Every structure is written in C-alpha cells, then in structure tokens.
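mind reviewing this stuff:

——
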Amino acid sequence: MSRTLRAVALALAMMSVASNRAAAQDIADIDYEYLSFRGLALEFGYLWPDRVEKTESYGLRFDLGYAGTGLRVVPSIMYWSSPLNASEIVEFENRVEDLVAQQNGGVRPSLDLGTIEYTDIAFGLDAQVVWELPLDVLTFGGVGVTAHVMDGDGDVINGTFVEDLLDSVEPGFNLHLGTEYPIAENMRVYASGRYEVMPDLQYLQVRAGWQFMWGPNAPGEGRGSN
C-alpha cells in the first residue's frame, strides 16, 4: 500500500505542475465549443498486475474534445486476458477448502483448480489536463474512473460456484501521464503510462495509440501551432 501511495503522490505532483504550465498556454483558453466526438484511436498496451501474469492489452480511445479550459474528456474501452499467478490460485484453493469444510462438518476436501484465466473488459472515462510543448508536442496528465467487467475461466471451474465467485464488476481509479504528437492534421500518435487501482487488483500499464481525427483541432493543438 505504501508503494501505491507514493505512486499516487508523485502523479498528483506532476499533474499539479502540468496544470500550472497549462494556464499560460493557448490551449488553456478554449471552452465548451470544442466538446464533441471528434476522434477515435486504436491502442496497444502492456500491463504489470500484482495478481495475474503480465500481459498485453488492446483498446479504443474516444476523443470528446474539451469540456472547459484545457480539460479534455476521453472515454475508452480496454481488453486484456491473463492467467492468475500460481500463488493466487493456491490461496483461492485454500479459501474454497475452508468454506467447504465449514459447510461439511469440518471435512476438508483437496482441490486442484488448474489454470484460471482472468479476463477484463474495462470501460473508462478520463479527464485530462493538456498543455503544449515546443515542436507541436502535446502532453497530458489526468485522472480516470473505470468499470471493470471481470471474468474467471478455467477447465476445472467452468459451470461451478467457483467461476461465479470470480465473475464480478469492479470499480477502478487511475492516474496517468502521456505525450501526443500530430503527425498530420487528422492523425496523431501518443503514448502514456497509468497506475490503476481496483479493490482486488492493481497494475502499472503503458499504452501507445494511433488516433484518427475528423473534428476540428483546438487552438494550439494542431501542427505548426507553436
């Protein structure tokens, strides 16, 4: 938990610096007229969780423009799937054995749950402070909330109450930082890092994306703007 708090504190400090710098930039002068669905990005990522094996992620990012001075609204959908760590499976087996023993007069079974695959479909909404750097580079930092639809799957547990225990919808909260570059007026590339906290899972993730634009750029956001 202390490691998590340090990461959160560092991200908040960096976001504070970003907000102060954004105030002096042209992009901070925009308003609600730039709030519209104006872009779609394809994302690839990699995450390092604390309970499952590290794995790739795939997603979509939707650019809704700006809801206020320099504040961009970015929904997203992300998918990843990975096996639970062996130690987590052993711990889960022990918990199920204890539960069965309590309901069966103290008779403790011996369970082998095999491999358990965890899948996450995450629906997120990020609020990002965006500011300019030289050479048309944009940088952003923000916070986000997420609904994680978690699914546990395995040959042994399929169709059992164990699978039901693993299936859930969990809330998440993240802090993230990234950079973005308009390679053309209607196309951007970006990269970001984020730390996601859920009730039963935490992970560090890096993402890279390719965004297609059909809406207008905000002042200070396009090519040749600085």
Observations:
- The chain has a mean pLDDT of 84.
- Residues 2-22 form the longest helix (21 residues).
